[in-house]
Write a sequence for this structure.
């Protein structure tokens, strides 16, 4: 069945280091992927997206990598800051409107 | 001002009570959604609406109903609340934009059913 999952439920990094959050998906028909950030007491916020015809996309301090061969998605955050502490969700879409969300990874940034 | 607002932000109620959660948006989007979030689980879709005259059930619609009063307003009702409906509820919107339309979320409503 369809599923979007995360390898690590929590990740702790030192301020200034790079963070890598991983996600596995199982629907080979998915053609659009999104990363959301959810801070405490807030709703999920769009970070970056990538279409299946790409394998890498960069934003401001964030990079998403897509490996369709192994159905793996990752979010890289450069020079992690305390404000990056949050839960990060990956999500996938296989055409249409339905978005399937992963359970989330909590990122802790140590000062 | 926030683009997607939800009221109330927190609610504690008792089993059997009727509860309405409200969502308003100023983004001008046609599509609106209601999700619930439980610890350790991803967001699960309750209902969605593509426009004022369109209402569709999501994967966990039992025990819930919705009303799309206007393009900007989408409310979620629990006709007779039960304890396993205790969760964080999110409203979201998206533009009518094909397979890449991003969803924009409200701040959430924390509902506790005693």
């Amino acid at each position: 069945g369809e599923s979007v999952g995360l390898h690590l439920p929590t990740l702790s990094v030192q301020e200034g280091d790079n963070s890598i959050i991983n996600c596995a998906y199982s629907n080979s028909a998915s053609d659009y992927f999104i990363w959301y950030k959810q801070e405490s007491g807030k709703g999920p916020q769009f970070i970056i997206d990538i279409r299946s015809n790409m394998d890498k996309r960069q934003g401001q301090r964030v990079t998403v990598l897509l490996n369709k061969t192994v159905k793996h998605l990752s979010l890289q955050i450069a020079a992690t800051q305390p404000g990056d502490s949050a839960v990060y969700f990956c999500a996938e879409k296989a055409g249409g409107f339905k978005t399937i969300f992963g359970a989330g990874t909590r990122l802790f940034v140590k000062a | 001002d926030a683009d997607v607002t939800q009221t109330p932000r927190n609610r504690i109620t008792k089993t059997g009570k009727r509860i309405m959660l409200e969502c308003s948006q100023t983004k001008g989007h046609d599509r609106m959604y209601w999700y619930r979030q439980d610890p350790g689980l991803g967001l699960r879709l309750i209902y969605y609406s593509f426009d004022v005259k369109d209402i569709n059930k999501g994967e966990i619609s039992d025990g819930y109903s919705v009303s799309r009063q206007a393009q900007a307003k989408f409310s979620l009702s629990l006709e007779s609340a039960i304890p396993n409906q205790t969760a964080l509820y999110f409203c979201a919107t998206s533009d009518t934009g094909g397979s890449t339309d991003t969803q924009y979320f409200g701040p959430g409503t924390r509902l506790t059913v005693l």
